[in-house]
């Protein structure tokens, strides 16, 4: 919601959102399984069918899902485990449970138990009604002038809301070791500016739905219908003006467009209508350092809005901001309204998730690292961490020898690449130091207070970074999330304890399978640090292009091979893979499996593995790569993803990569002319 997480958008493994709680099947014993293989298929004709055919048959699409995949089964199981931890902690916190293993042992067990338990206590939430919000609404009602307005903004920001703009901390682009204050565009309550500005029929419809939703919310707060309609119009006017000044998501792909260093004096000159000194004093940020005023034209537009908008209209906008922030801990009528608009109207979701699911999500989102500590204790032993770290090290070694031999990089660029690799840090499972939640108060039976205090704790934690050296050991995802990412300004690759679980990473499986699954994905993330985006940041995380123009030309020439290869792959009917849209991920997939394969081969020379179930280690490695991507999907969803997802469909993520690899042809005895043998293989890493 704020701070570095939201700002940076690390390269996540799963681009499209996965509905974790939509029901359907859940496999409780997930493991690489040779029964997934369709022995009647020819691996050299269609390896995906060979490796996944059995799985696809045994795992038909559940009626309530648009797609169903191995990684979804893994996410579902993960959610069940986290919910179980929280249920146990809540029972222990309320004294109902004693001495049970599931009750946990960490120092924050009582906090996660009380946070989750208060969220689940719907009776208390209904009884309290709007009582917990009364103070907020009264303070908003008492606003009289610009100074009051600034004070209220500072207050709203302090518990995590993004009213008018976002306040947080950011690394300096040219010196990534330093953290400075950061002010960015934010304050819209629909997903992106196009929802306010576009004439597209869907957007016009969304806007009308939003207006109706706002009216409903104000009526729930007790406004008369005519007043609710006027208040809704105020909100739309303010947010539309902000939307017109925002950079679009496409513009924000250019990091330099949202980075502008300024002093306080320069900010005051840019946006003089707002009492900045008072604002910074209120949130407790020193103004003697430079800050990143990310989008100056946005701040100017906000400044104009401050001048032209009546105080009464601001009050309505603030009332809406505060009620939206409070919704997860408000009575059901507010949560239903929120679901109807945000999930149903905007997202097409038919059914509201259960309270257990909502409260699990809330606890993860607000004090997630405390939950993660318990998850790690139960599901990620030190031996798993050691094994995964060793694997990453082997994949890094494979990359280093690749750099030494690579034909298209100039000698100087190779040195830069090797230096970046040496400085890159792999973080596995969970952070070296657990977050200290001791200053956070969580009370039983106070869902709303807990929510706001947890968000304030996070806001203070973010601001506490300003003026300090950057913490390169921080996790931007919780340990229990099922995620992996790479981040350039910190120069890390991260794999959470939640993803380092079977079948993706399985200490009980042979290394061949693990290198085909986790090893290849480690290689995938690693390669992003050196690709067409990665080369804009050096090993210290500073924004500095370390490619020569010649390197770029060679890279692009080789990239064109992938564009041509993938663009020929059919999806559904006449829709084909968009080779340009999926280029970055296809390159990372190809590099990833190459690196995973070579890392395994290097290891196998010293420690050979046996043939298992009739498959050689190399054959199993490629089966591992494929099984991670088995997926049943509706035609409609496949078409939608072909237009919007940066990743290729599962079938082509499998076949596209193996058909470029000599090692695959060797493992399965495929010959020139076979569909899985690309006559002119594409290769970057
Ligand atoms: Zn990727």
**In percent terms, what proportion of residues is strand?**
5-15%
Shape: globular
Strand order of the largest sheet: 1-8-9-7
* CA-based gyration radius: 26 Å
Helix content: 40-55%
Total of helices: 26
The total strand number stands at 12
Query: pLDDT under 50 segments (min length 5)?
Result: 1-27
Bound molecules: zinc ion
Please describe the biggest sheet, giving its number of strands, its sense, and whether it closes into a barrel: 4 strands, mixed
Oligomer: single chain
By secondary-structure content and strand pairing, the structural class works out as alpha+beta
End-to-end distance, in Å? 35 Å
Question: Mean pLDDT, rounded to whole units?
Answer: 92
Short key terms for the protein model shown above:
single chain, 685 residues, alpha+beta, four-stranded mixed beta sheet, 26 helices, 53% helix, 7% strand, globular, binds zinc ion
Structure report:
It is a single chain. The protein is α+β, with helices and mostly antiparallel strands and 685 residues long. Strands 1-8-9-7 form a 4-stranded mixed beta sheet. It has a 4-stranded mixed beta sheet with strand order 3-4-6-5. Strand 8 and strand 9 form a beta hairpin. The radius of gyration is 26 Å and the shape is globular. The structure holds zinc ion (ZN). The site of zinc ion has 5 residues, from helix 20 and helix 22.
């Amino acid at each position: 919601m704020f701070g570095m997480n939201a700002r940076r958008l690390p390269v996540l493994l799963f681009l499209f959102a996965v509905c974790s709680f939509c029901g359907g099947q859940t496999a409780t014993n997930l493991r690489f399984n040779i029964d997934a293989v369709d022995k009647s298929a020819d691996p050299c004709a269609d390896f995906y069918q060979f490796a996944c055919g059995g799985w696809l048959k045994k795992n038909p699409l559940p009626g309530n899902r648009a797609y169903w995949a191995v990684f979804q089964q893994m996410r579902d199981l993960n959610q069940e485990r986290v919910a179980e931890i929280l249920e146990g902690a809540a029972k222990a916190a309320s004294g109902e449970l004693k001495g049970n293993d599931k009750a946990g042992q960490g120092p924050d067990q009582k906090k996660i138990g009380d946070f989750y338990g208060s969220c689940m206590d719907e009776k208390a939430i209904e009884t309290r009604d709007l009582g917990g919000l009364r103070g907020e609404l009264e303070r908003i009602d008492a606003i009289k002038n610009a100074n009051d307005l600034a004070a209220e903004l500072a207050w709203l920001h302090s518990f995590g809301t993004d009213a008018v703009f976002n306040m947080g901390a950011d690394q300096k682009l040219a010196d990534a070791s330093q953290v400075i204050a950061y002010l960015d565009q934010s304050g819209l309550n629909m997903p992106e500016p196009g929802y306010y500005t576009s004439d597209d029929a869907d957007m016009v419809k969304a806007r009308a739905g939003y207006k109706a939703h706002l009216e409903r919310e104000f009526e729930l707060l007790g406004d008369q219908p005519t007043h609710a309609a006027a208040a809704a119009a105020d909100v739309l006017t303010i947010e539309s003006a902000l939307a017109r000044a925002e950079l679009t998501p496409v513009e924000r792909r250019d990091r330099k467009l949202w980075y502008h260093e300024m002093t306080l004096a320069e900010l005051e000159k840019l946006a003089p209508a707002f009492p900045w000194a008072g604002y910074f004093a209120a949130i407790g940020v020193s103004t003697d350092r430079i800050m990143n005023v990310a989008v100056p034209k946005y701040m100017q537009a906000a400044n104009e809005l401050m001048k032209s908008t009546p105080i009464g209209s601001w009050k309505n906008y603030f009332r809406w901001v505060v009620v939206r922030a409070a919704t997860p801990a408000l009575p059901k009528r507010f949560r239903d309204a929120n679901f109807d608009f945000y999930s149903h109207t905007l997202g097409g979701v038919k059914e509201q998730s259960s309270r257990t699911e909502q409260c699990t999500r809330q606890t993860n989102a607000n004090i997630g690292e405390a939950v993660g500590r318990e998850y790690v204790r139960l599901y990620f032993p030190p031996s798993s961490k050691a094994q995964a770290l060793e694997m990453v090290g082997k994949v890094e070694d494979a990359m280093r020898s690749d750099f030494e031999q690579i034909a298209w990089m100039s000698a100087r660029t190779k040195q830069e690449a090797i230096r970046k690799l040496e400085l890159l840090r792999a973080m596995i499972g969970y952070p070296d130091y657990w977050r200290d939640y001791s200053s956070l108060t969580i009370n039983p039976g106070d869902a709303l207070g807990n929510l706001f205090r947890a968000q304030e704790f996070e806001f203070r934690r973010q601001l506490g970074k300003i003026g300090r050296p950057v913490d390169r050991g921080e996790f931007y995802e919780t340990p229990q999330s099922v995620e992996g990412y790479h981040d350039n300004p910190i120069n890390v690759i991260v794999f959470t304890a939640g993803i380092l679980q079977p079948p993706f990473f399985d200490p009980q499986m042979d290394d061949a399978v693990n290198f085909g699954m986790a090893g290849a994905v480690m290689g995938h993330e690693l390669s992003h640090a050196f690709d067409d985006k990665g080369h804009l940041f050096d090993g210290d995380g500073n924004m500095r292009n370390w490619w020569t123009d010649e390197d770029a030309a060679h890279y692009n020439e080789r990239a064109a091979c992938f564009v041509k290869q993938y663009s020929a792959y059919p999806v559904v009917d006449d829709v084909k893979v968009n080779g340009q849209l999926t280029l970055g991920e296809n390159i990372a997939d190809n590099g990833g499996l190459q690196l995973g394969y070579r890392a395994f081969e290097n290891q196998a020379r010293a420690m050979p593995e046996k043939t298992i179930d009739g498959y050689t280690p190399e054959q199993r490695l490629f089966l591992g790569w494929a099984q991670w991507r088995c997926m049943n999907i509706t035609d409609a969803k496949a078409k939608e993803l072909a237009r919007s997802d940066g990743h290729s469909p599962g079938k082509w993520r499998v076949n596209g990569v193996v058909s470029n690899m000599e090692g695959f042809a060797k493992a399965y005895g495929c010959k020139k002319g076979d569909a899985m043998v690309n006559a002119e293989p594409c290769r970057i890493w």
